[in-house]
Design brief:
The protein is mostly beta strands and 448 residues long. The protein is built from six helices and 29 strands. It is 15% helix and 38% strand.
């Protein structure tokens, strides 16, 4: 398995044979940066963002009035969302079954407090015509007062979205940080035969196909508002950049001129796209507006420059370049100035993704002959490898809160999307069907 840039150049082999041979050629010897007092030392960075001193203890009894299957799914989804957030220690119905409860909330507060809980989450569901009505409340067990109350109403198909919305409200109120339950992950999958663009909920549920080009479509990139996806597709011949509108399903070309346009990345304001483009047989970084106009070249090197990633604040673009021999991660200003290398460990570094805060870059790094996920602080250049063991890992993407990373791994035998905490722990699969790769996590919850 090769990292993102190699995959893309292999797919374009008929168009850029010489380029592909160069990209695929393994390095004869791992290249080391020249000795210098400015060369960063090998260090370990402690990734503790979002780590709490302790988890909030929450009592979560069964919701009242299950309202059939959708009601049960709603309760399970809220519980699942809060558990996956990592912010809470949850006591569910089984753990609470030993308490002597009367059913009167105020009278039962001492019982809930007796097991160390700090807050109580209650839910009521009922049917009103063809709509499911859900009312959720959070009570402070110290004062007995309701500190959060929300009401949602909608048809059965939106029960999961109601659950995600309420879970994010609970997290925002109790933790003071946005939740990620409404975010989505776009990815490439071949489960239908040809590689197409797919989207799933943040937890792997509700996987659905977005493109049906019956050709290779890959490298999806979310717009900042979550309303569209830019991606690479070969369906009209040479690889070009296309845009899919999520609400209408409409697809349209952005940049298709020339022989090679790949790896799109949106600017934070959603007005421009950075991408890699062939220039006289070499690949460089360009930007354009969403109609393909205003084309501007940012790099001009003898190596392959590809996989741009626009920083969250818009001032910088990370990219992969082979100008020093092996592929390495570089940074430049968004106008192309101040190009500098930031990866100095490993023998092949590619496919950088920014953390939402803009202080970290996650990328694919070959260590001891295996591709793994590494994270580098862009200021200090401190680096940590998050994955290990057999089954190569690549193509990382940060969650909107910066506390999790989705990535591709072969640890189960084939390419699947996994998610892990920022420290590399709690790894779990999100996909199981077909071969799946090149995930991109939405920055905000898409409007529905």
């Amino acid at each position: 398995m090769r990292p993102r840039s190699a995959i893309l150049t292999v797919l374009a082999c008929l168009l850029l044979a010489a380029l592909v041979l160069a990209a695929q050629q393994p390095p004869q010897q791992p290249q080391q940066p020249p000795a210098s007092q400015d060369q960063p030392k090998s260090v370990t960075i402690t990734l503790d963002r979002g780590v709490q001193a302790r988890k909030i203890k929450i009592a979560f009894p069964a919701f009242r009035g299950q309202a059939g299957g959708p009601g049960q799914e709603l309760e399970q989804t809220v519980r699942h969302d809060l558990d996956l957030s990592g912010y809470f220690e949850i006591q569910g119905p089984d753990a609470l079954s030993g308490l002597a409860l009367s059913g009167d909330v105020q009278k039962d507060l001492p019982a809930y407090r007796s097991t160390g809980n700090e807050v109580l989450l209650l839910g009521d569901m009922r049917m009103e015509g063809d709509k499911l009505v859900f009312e959720g409340r959070v009570l402070d067990l110290g004062s007995g007062q309701a500190v959060l109350a929300k009401r949602y109403s909608g048809p059965f198909p939106v029960s999961r979205r109601m659950a995600h919305t309420f879970a994010d409200e609970v997290i925002r109120f109790l933790v003071g940080k946005p939740g990620i339950a409404l975010s989505e992950i776009a990815f490439t999958s071949d489960r239908g035969g040809a590689k197409e663009i797919w989207v799933m909920d943040y937890d792997g549920a509700n996987q659905r196909r977005i493109t049906s080009h019956r050709s290779t479509s890959m490298s999806p990139a979310w717009s900042p508002n979550g309303e569209s996806l830019a991606y690479t597709s070969f369906f009209n011949g040479p690889p070009g950049i296309y845009l899919a509108e999520m609400s209408s399903g409409r697809k349209r070309p952005v940049v298709t001129s020339g022989s090679f346009n790949i790896s799109p990345s949106f600017s934070p304001d959603g007005r421009r796209i950075a991408f890699a483009r062939s220039v006289e047989g070499n690949v460089e970084i360009f930007t354009s507006d969403l109609n393909g106009g205003g084309l501007r070249r940012l790099t001009n090197s003898s190596g392959i420059d590809t996989n741009p990633a626009w920083s969250p604040k818009g001032g910088e673009i990370a990219f992969t370049s082979s100008r020093a021999g092996n592929p390495e991660i570089y940074l430049m200003d968004s106008e192309g100035a101040n190009q500098r290398r930031i990866s100095f460990e490993g023998t092949y570094n590619d496919g950088a993704a920014w953390s939402p805060e803009g202080d970290l870059l996650a990328y694919t790094s070959r260590r001891d002959g295996q591709f793994q996920i590494a994270v580098t602080n862009v200021v200090t250049l401190e680096t940590r490898v998050l994955t290990s063991g057999p089954g190569e890992s690549q193509s990382p993407t940060f969650s909107p809160d910066g506390r999790k990373i989705a990535f591709t791994s072969r640890r189960g035998g084939g390419n699947q999307i996994y998610v892990m905490d920022l420290d590399g722990g709690n790894v779990r699969p999100l996909t199981t069907e077909g071969s799946n790769d090149l995930a991109d996590w939405s920055r905000n919850a898409p409007e529905k």
